[in-house]
Amino acid sequence: DNLQHLSLSDEEDQVLEVVPLVDTSSFSYNMCFVGMFMTYSRINFNSMRDVLAELWHPLGGVSITDLGAKRFLFRFYTLVDFERVWNGTPWLFNNHLLILHPLQPGEVPLLVPLIYIHDLKARFFSESVAHSLANFIGDYLDHDLTRVSTVKSESYVKVRVRMDVRNPLKRRRRLVAPDGTSFFARFAYEHFQVFYFLCGRLGHIDSFCNDPKMDRHRCNDPEIDTPL
């Protein structure tokens, strides 16, 4: 295998929060969101439930369940309520941004949506590369190599990982081949609709990001490079 010496540059040490999956054998996740508040502070569940129920005022009602690990399950009973909440994002509770992900058939609440890996070279569409890149992003769960085409722009690898979305998201990775040449693989996160390109954290937009290091970047320069 001429890719056995493939290496990943600039490895980063990460602490992964691994949480148990909930039992899905007797529950339908139709019209459900899994959500997480972008804060390290404790969320008062009863207060949050009452405030959001009053704010959304759903015609068919809403059930809110604490999944642990600061994740919550929001279940709606009419499509109009479900779509109105989704179309109204982003939502806030006590000035904490709520990130929502609509569950798809077969998904379980604590799985992260699919991540698409783009810009791979032709000979790098392999299980070992997919596994290595997934572990760089988070904790590898699964991958799919079925979208490989002779047209580069139409080819990508799909991986699924478990990770702590409060940490900055990985946006690209430099791959180094045995002959010393290198290129960047780019990551796209499915259904993550609020992503601040300066600090890399979900839910951080210019008015919410409190990282002092970002102050100097708040300008109109379109050529800011994305650090690894």
Automatic annotation (TrEMBL):
It comes from the Eukaryota. Transmembrane segments: none annotated. Residues 163-210 form the Zinc knuckle CX2CX4HX4C domain. InterPro entries: At4g02000-like, DUF4283, Zn_knuckle_CX2CX4HX4C. Residues 31-109 form the DUF4283 domain. This is DUF4283 domain-containing protein.
